[in-house]
Amino acid sequence: MPAPRPPFQTLQLFPLRVPCPPGACICGHAALLESGQGDHRILLLTREEEAKLAERLEQAQTLAELRQLQQRMVDQLGLQLHIAPGRQGTQGLRGLEIELEPMPGLCRKTRKALPEAVRRCMEQRPEIAHALLDEGSLFAGL
Q: Which of 66, 94, 96, 101 has the fewest CB atoms within 10 Å distance of its CB?
């Protein structure tokens, strides 16, 4: 008689992010995995991939390239990165609103690291910040 087969298991093609220690983060990694509901793509952003993404954001040369990276983050990970002038007006880079939209599975360190990478990019290339401010201005496109 043949040995019984193990139950069907899904093949994991990509490594998943290692969960944060209990109580250290509010990401909800375990809850997202257990529920089977929601967008699991964020779990593909391992710490190594997060570092690569942060470096990629920091190395953006133009606003168009930064916007393209934003769109790829949405398409591949479901991450919404918002970059916009502040509501109170901007007098420098600190007046820009750069934040990740909260979502289950998104680590608090990632929520901090990616916007900081964008901020460093704009510090290195102020023309990107100027282009961002000109995007919605009265004289945009002239």
A: 94
